[in-house]
Predict the structure.
Amino acid sequence: MTLTGPFGKRVAMYPRPSPAEEKKRIAYFLNIAKFDKQLGYFVWTKHRPRVRVGERVGNMTTGGYWTLKFRYFGRHIAIFEHRLIWFLHTGEVPDEIDHINGNRLDNRISNIRNVSRHINAKNLSRHRDGRLWGCGWENNGWRARIRNGKKLVHIGRFDTEIEAHRAAIKRAQELGIKTPKHV
C-alpha cells in the first residue's frame, strides 16, 4: 500500500503486525540480542553479517526514535526499542507508547507508558512548550479551559499562570477527565 506523504512523495505504509506476529518477531530477536541492564540498551549476542557481538543494536530514525533492525526469515524488520522494552517488562504488546518526558531516546521503563492515541497526543511537545496544562495567555490575563470530549469548558480568567493551571486540574478532576501525566 502506498500513500502520498509530505511534498507529494509516495510513502510505503505497512500495517502494524498483529500482536501474535509481533510476539514471534520479538522472540526471534531475543535469540540474537539481549537487553544489557547496565548499558540500558540492546546488544548483539550472535555474530551476524556486518555486526559484532556486544555492539549496540539498531540506529536512530529521522523521527528521533531508536529502532532495532534485523532480518526475520529473509525480511527486513524494524521494531521500536521502546515497544520491545515495554514488552520485556510487562509481557504485553503495547498499543501505543508515550514518552512521559518527551525525550524519544529515553526508554527507561519509568519514562514510558502504554496509552491510547488520545492521551499520547496530549503529551506532544507542542502541548508542553513552556505553558502549563489547561491555561494560556489571552487579553492581558491567564485563561483556564479544558476539553471535555468535543466540548470546550471555559473555567475562568486568573492573574497568574499557576492559578489558571490549578483551576484547570481541579475542574478536570471534578469532570473525571484524565490529565496528561506530566502535569
About this structure: The longest strand covers residues 151-158.
